[in-house]
Each structure stands twice: as structure tokens, then as C-alpha cells.
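Before relying on records like the one below, remember that each one covers exactly one chain. Contacts with other chains, cofactors or solvent are not represented anywhere in the record.
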Amino acid sequence: MSAPTESARASALQSGLLSRTNQTPEYRSAAPTAAPSAPWTEMPQHSMGDKPLVSVPQLVFPSPPSATDSECGHSPPSRRASLGSPPGHGTPCPAAHSPPDSCSQPLCPPLAEKHGCQAPPEMRYVAAGPQSVACGWWAFTPKCLQAFNTPRGFLLFLCAAAFLQGMTVNGLVSTVITSLERRYDLPSYQSGLIASSYDAAACLCLTFVSYFGGNGHKPRWLGWGVLVMGAGSLLFALPHFTAGAYEAEAAEGVGTCRANRSVACRDSASGLAGYRLVFMLGQFLHGVGATPLYTLGVTYLDENVKSSYSPVYIATFYTAAILGPAAGYLIGGALLNVYTEIGRRTELTTESPLWVGAWWVGFLGAGAAAFLIAIPILGYPRQLPGSQRYVVMRVSETHQLKDSGHKAASNPDFGKTIRDLPLSIWLLLKNPTFILLCLAGATEATLIAGMSTFGPKFLESQFSLSASEAATLFGYLVVPAGGGGTFLGGFLVNKFKLRGAGIIKLCLLCTLTSLLAVFVFFIHCPNVPMAGVTASYSGSVLPEGHLELTAACNAPCACRPERYSPVCGSNSLTYYSPCHAGCGGEAAPGAGGHKVYRDCSCVPQNFSSGFGHATAGKCTSTCQRKPLLLVFIFVVITFTFLSSIPALTATLRCVCDRQRSFALGIQWIVVRTLGAIPGPIAFGWVIDKACLLWQDQCGQRGSCFVYQNSAMSRYMLITGLVYKVLGFLFFATACVLYKPPSESPNSLAASLPSQSSASDNPMDLRDTPSALQLRSDV
């Protein structure tokens, strides 16, 4: 056959490939067959240089059967094409022509090497039918929307969904828990059940969503998830409209010596406590709807961007999720200053223990915003245009395990039925790098969940702050440290072009740095003296664990322990309540809007005869170590979050392409089960060991009022060191056990791109830089 004839054939076949841009290849493994014989022709070189085109398995695009296609010779070249793969060694190449029933001719037959050749297992790319990559809804795909049909456009809406999820679940819910307890007569353990319903729902749904959603239409799973999350927000606000109006009366003068009233101990509960089930169901829907975000959303981003850019996109996504709670605290705090019955006048003030703010407004807004965000996400295609060009580079970083199970996982039909679930789990369990990264993530999640829950309490105790001041200060630490650390982690991976083992080493370095910074908890601030708890009423130090709340100066007042309302005496000594300070007069407004109690018998007057005064609130701390503590806490938070995106990227790189969504789902289950759920429980149990003064609720122990700062710092240090050391060991072992891929031609065939990440243009492979540096002799 003449050279011009072969050149024309190649040109026609290339045109046929380009004309089928709307057909997504489907990959199937066939039995070894003899390579068809044809005259050898020279393969065109890479358009960007003198490097040859990467060798890929045979590519077959069959056309629908028709009456004119009874013989192969009647099929036009544009309808059928095949791309041959290089032969192996050990078997002579057959010289016979293709059998008559073969309906494909090789576009570029490979050259026989000097040692002979052996046909590898044939990998077929079978067209799965027309697949639209236009952005829109069904047939409605206007051209104006295609400007958003890019990774950046999808990232915008995905960040909006993550921001909304963080604002609602981690911001608004945490802010309004106290108001819900007051409004619906809920004890603390029931409000804890409301908060934990989110994680319980996520654990139940992660396996199902990540397994089936990973092989399905990811944007549709994400869009419907955001809709479910919006329905949960609306359901969470429903009790406000069905429980009736909130009515409460202000009790003036309660807590002073002359008007001390004991709290009535009632066993009967109102019917409002039953609304906890509605709140739990709303949180459950929040968890169900948010499940696809951190599994399918991450893998969809990773599939559709360049491998080196993926950490930056994922870091941006997680940064939005971290900034969401900050907005939730700000919005929720502002709404709590508005009375829950909007438009109705009340004598209550925001400082009253009976005050309930407009907790429900934020959830109505979140529900409406969720529906607006879900609409554009539902319009995105299964994969973005031109995504296949990034597949080879992703495959080149996959942790190599040579067994038949991973060959089965490369089958395009793998993972579409429940029968493949046990094998999928078994393949992940046999991957030591994946298991160790999951365990390392669980240790980090334990610290993050514990510190986010009890970090404000630690600052409140160490620096003698109010609850709102401590929460605000902790927010100032977490937002720049957490958000900046998360984005910086993704930026470093992209900046230094880190791969597999290099990413894990970065996680190891971050964990070591935060481990050293944890030693800051050796430092602590001394307790502010409190009469009857840490100091006597005369000012002398009391032995640890020895309480004397009643003294001669307040004995006639018969103060009840249920009324805890600390005041700061003019002698810089904190008292349990105005009654315990012996204050008999009514409170009067003082400087800064704080209430001032006069004629307090337990507060000595320094410069004149008579009794002193006390100001509402605890005395301020004069600790000189406050800046040092805050700086090192900032470092711990920064480097803890800095390792999150590299660890997530390493997880995506250590599993095969078709298992990445399912692997993230399993990892989230492990992280939540071993870290996020037990983390606050473990930290709470440890911190309670440092309690000096417990709340007395009609003879039953309630929450802790006063902690011993030295013991709290010591326990925080021990807990932080244990989990940081475990995380360091897990990352170090994962770095040692990680196996980079072997550079062989068969490695590409073992890790073919999935259908969801395939490009619509098969010729995109020409633009793919070969991570394996395979060379062809054609």
C-alpha cells in the first residue's frame, strides 16, 4: 500500500474521531487476541515537540448496525477506528491479515521490537452513546450559561454550597442551642443529641452516596443534596410557627440578699420538649444533604482540573466551608439580640436568663438560599469539557498494588451494583497508605472537634472572659488560622508540584510543627481569686477542692446555690452572686452599661466606713502570658488545618480512579466515627477533671462553673500530645509504605480513566503530557 493511501486513511480516521465528540468512551477489557497485521506506517510526532505520542490501548468506536454495514469494507473510515497498543515480548507477531469478521483496522499498527512481541490484553473504548457536555437543564442549554461551564464556574457554586452548609450546621445551630434549651425546656443532653444527629446521618449515608454517586451523575447528586439540606433548614425553623407565642415575665431583683428567691424544682415537663424530635430530624436532613459535598464534590473537582491545580481548587472549597461558621456566628449572634416574637414588645432584656432571640430567622434564610444554589449545580454535565487530558497524570500517582482485584476495579461496570461493594471495601482495606491516612485524619479530626467545642471554654477560664467575649476571641483565631492554613496547604502542593510521597511528607512536617507548638499548654494563667472557691472571703488562698460559699457576712441572706451570677467586688475578688457578696440594694446602671450593686456586706470598703460595691460579671484577669498563649494556639490551629488539603490530596492519589469517591466516603466514616463524634466527648471528659465548682440543680450536679486553670492546661497538653504523636506516626508509616507506580507500559492499561472523567474529544490525548514517559518506535 502506498504512503499517500495510508496517509489519507489516517486523516479520514482522525476526522471520524473528531466527529464523535458527544460520545463518552466506555472501557472494557477483552481477552488477549492476535494483533491484526497491516503494513507499518510512521506515526505523527507530538505537536508540541519531538516526543512521540503516548501509547494507549486499542480504541474502538463501533457504529449502530445498519443494512449497509453487513461487511467491514462498506463502513466508512469515520465510523470505525482503532488505536493499536505496542506489543509485548516473547511472541512473534502474526503476518496474516485481519479476519473477515473484524470490523476495525489499526490506525497506527505498532512496530515489532527486536525481541519479538506479545499482544497485551485488549482494552476496548466502546462509545456509551451521546453525552451532552453543555450546561443547562434537559433541552434548555442557552449559550449565556456556557460561560459558567468551567471548573472555576462550578467551584463558585460549590463554594457557595459549602459556605451555606458551614454557616447553618456549624454556625447557626451552635449559636442557637442555648436559646432552644430555654424556649423548649430541653436539658443539655437532649440538645447534644440534636447536634450529633448531623454526624449520625452523615455516617449512615456516606457509604451509599459515595459508592453509587461516585459512578453516577455527580452534579445531580450534589444538587439534590443541597435541596435536601435546604428542606432540613426549613424544618428546623418549623417549631417556631407551631409551638405558639413565647411568653415570659421579668423577675426584678432576684439574686440579691433582700430579694433572694429559690428556684422551684419541678419534675413536670412541658409538651414543648417533644419538639426535640423535629430539630433532630432537621439536623438529620442537614447531614444527608451535606454528605455529597465532601465526597462527590471533591472528586468532581479533582476529575476536571489539572492534577497540579487540584489542591488549589480543593483548598478554596474547604476554605469556604471554614468561613461559613464564622458567618453563622456573626449572623446568629446578631439575630439573638432581636426578640423571638418579632414585633411584640417585652420587658425582658438581652441579659435576662429568660431572653430568647430570633433563632429561627437564620434557618429560613438558609433554606431559601439552598434552593437558589441547587438550581445551577443541577445544570452541570456529568463531566466538564476537556477533562480527559488530566487523567494520565492522575493515574501516574496512584499507589500500585499488583493483584487481580485492582484489575477488576478498572472495569467500567465495576461499582454499579451492590454486589461489588464487598470487593470495593476489601480493596481499600488492602491499601495500607489509605488506611493510615484515614487514621491520621481521625486523630486530626479529634483535635479539631474537641478544640472547636471547648476552645472558647479554655479561653474563658484562662483569661476570665465572658462566654461571648471568649467565643469572639476564638473566632478571631480560627478564621484566619483555619481558613489561611487550609488554603496555604493546597497552595504549597501546587507551588512545589508535590506528588504522592512528597504530599505525605508535607503532612508529616505540618504535624511535627503543631506537635512542638502543643507544648505551649505548659503555660497557664492563674485563676482569678473567687470567694469561697479559690480564696477565702478574707482573701487568703483556699486548699484545692475546699468550698466555703457561706460566710458570716452573707449567712443572714440564706443564699441559694441555684442562682449563679458572678460579680466583681471593689476589692478585685469575684463572688458567686450578689447575694453571696451580701449586696442588699437593687442594681443600678453603672459605667459601660454594667449593673452595680451597692451596700455589699462581704466587700470591704478601702477608704471609708461602710460596705463596698460589686459590678456584674467576673473580675478581669491580669495574666501577662496571654499574648504568648494566643500566638502558639494560633500556630497549632494553622498547622493542623494546613495538613488537611495535602492529606486529602494524598488520599485521592493513593487509590485507583474508579474508587476515589467511595474512598472519600469511607474516609469520612472513619474520621467521623473515630474522630469527630468521640472527640468532643473525650475532651469534655478530660476537661471536667479540672472542675472546681459544679452547678447545683436541685441537688443534682449540672455543668461546671469554675475550672482550675493549671489542671485544665495540663490535661489539654496530655490530650494534644497523645493525638499529635499518633498522627505523626500514622503519617510517617504511610510515607514509608507508599509505593510509587512502576514505569511500565502496562501501568496505563491498569488505570484507565473512568467514564465520568473522560473527555468528549478523544484527540485530547494528544495534548496529554506523559507522566510515564512511554516511547514508541514508530
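Confidence is low (pLDDT under 50) at residues 1-130, 743-778.
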